[in-house]
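Summary of Year 1 activities. Much of the first year was spent building the evaluation harness for sequence design. The harness presents a backbone, in tokenized form, and records the residue chosen at every position. We chose the following record to illustrate the format because it has been used consistently in internal testing since the harness was completed.
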């Protein structure tokens, strides 16, 4: 089973890369699989790639679920 985390695109970078954020954690990811993604969009991120653009409500519901299991993230998450 794989796990994809919804993250919000905060910046578009060169070479189809983007900076994304979830719960204050930022990462640089590839948009090769989702070239239509824009700043402000939520994307599902797996293994450093955005694999799907999702709507904000779906993303927030998933983030709320993740917050219920902070031990899965291996660190304290903000409330």
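For this record, the design step produced the sequence shown next.
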């Amino acid at each position: 089973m794989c796990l994809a985390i919804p993250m919000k695109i905060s910046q578009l970078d060169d070479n189809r890369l983007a900076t994304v954020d979830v719960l204050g954690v930022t990462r640089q990811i590839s948009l090769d699989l989702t070239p239509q993604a824009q700043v402000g969009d939520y994307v599902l991120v797996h293994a450093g790639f955005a694999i799907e653009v999702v709507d904000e409500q779906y993303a927030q519901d998933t983030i709320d679920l993740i917050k219920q299991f902070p031990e899965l993230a291996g660190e304290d998450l903000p409330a």
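The beta strands are 5-12, 17-22, 25-30, 42-46, 49-54. Quantitative recovery figures across the full test set are reported in Table 2.
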